[in-house]
Amino acid sequence: MRHVEVMVSDRKLEFQEALEEKCLWLQVFFDYSHIVKNFNDKVVNVVRKDKQHSIIEECNLVAAKDLKKTRYILTASRMTLHKKDEYTAAERVIHKGSGFFKTEDIVEGGV
How many whole angstroms separate alpha carbon 98 and alpha carbon 55? Predict the structure, then answer.
């Protein structure tokens, strides 16, 4: 591996530590998606959980329960959230009704 100068790695700490110990000459790089994932896991979720615990200590269980459901909102990109809002705003038939079983269409959205 002496001829290798640069290596791209995932988020596995053990792998990174082994490379740094055995291959001192290598420069290790991480791709953008792994950096974002690591930040979301180690920072955003930890802060959210700490806040949730402090809200529980204040005996506001409703707010703590609401905060528990925000991981997706906090870690999703703006584009993803915008697409989801557009999808929800449009009325879509998610189950076609049946004359035989006398059921109606089930419509999602229309907010």
Answer: 47
E strands, the chain, are 6-9, 27-30, 92-95, 106-108
Residue with tokens 């402090």: 54
Burial class (CB in 10 A: 0-12, 13-18, 19+), 71: middle
What mean pLDDT value characterizes the chain?
82
61-68 and 45-57 helices, crossing angle to 10°: 170
Q: Per DSSP, what are the bridge partners of residue 95?
A: 106
* Annotated domain spans of the chain: 1-30, 32-92
Q: pLDDT tens for residues 7-27?
A: 777 767 787 788 778 888 877
